[in-house]
Amino acid sequence: MAFEEGLAKSEKAYEQFTEVSTAFAEIVKDEFITTWQWWVGLALFIIPWLVWMKYRKKDSTGRLLLAGLLIIILSLTIDLAALSLGLWSYPLIIIPLAPFLFLPYHFSLAPVGIMFALQIKPQMNSLLKGILFSAIAAFGGMNFFNAIDFYNPKSWSTLYDFVIFLTLYYAGYWITRMESLNGLDKIKSEGEQNEKNKRLS
């Protein structure tokens, strides 16, 4: 039966994945944890969020966090697809638990960077700002991480990274511009006011 064979192969693949995760954990414990690169990688999870908490635009915190959450989901999805296709890799493993998931790029650097870009000069032309952010992130950030062995682009072009960052930026921009982001209590009070107006008319 094809289905039963598929289930058996799937279980075997999961066992192999568990072995790979164990191997990554040993690499982190034996090779990486004593290096400055590993500690920098760990700091990149924490420091950007601390900086953002201090300098965020406080009256737009909810909108910005919603944009950041969308960026995390999108960047994770893109990374998992690309990693499974072998388009690029992240040689430095920071957290051995689900090593392809827990990386500072999509949990910290991308969302915080885009949230800062969105809140700085909000009246500036969005296309120009998106291009500037994406150019800095792709041609500056990704090439820097490649140079210090945090990122291996293989044959992946930095220009493609630029397009990905521009897409992520506009996804965040779109979320922060949604007119429907009103509080539930505000919606309720407006509805009650409309009902009251109908009764009076």
Provide a compact summary of the structure.
The protein is built from 7 helices and no strands. The protein is mostly helical.
Would you spell out the secondary-structure blueprint of this structure?
Layout: H1 2-32, H2 36-55, H3 61-85, H4 104-119, H5 126-147, H6 158-176, H7 184-200
Helix pairs in contact: 2-4, 3-4, 3-6, 4-6, 5-6
Structure report:
This protein has 201 residues and is an all-alpha fold. It has seven helices and no strands. It has helices at residues 2-32, 36-55, 61-85, 104-119, 126-147, 158-176, 184-200. Helix 3 (61-85) runs antiparallel to helix 6 (158-176). The longest helix is centred in the first third of the chain and has 31 residues, at 2-32. The protein is globular, with a radius of gyration of 22 Å. The termini are far apart. The mean pLDDT is 86.
Mean pLDDT: 86
Given helix and strand content, the structural type is mainly alpha
Termini, distance in Å?
71 Å
The number of helical elements comes to 7
Order of helices and strands: HHHHHHH
Which range best describes the helical content: under 10%, 10-25%, 25-40%, 40-55%, 55-70% or over 70%?
over 70%
CA-atom Rg in angstroms: 22 Å
What does the main sheet amount to? none
Strand content: under 5%
- Uncertain stretches: none
Q: Report the principal-axis shape.
A: globular
Q: How many strands?
A: 0
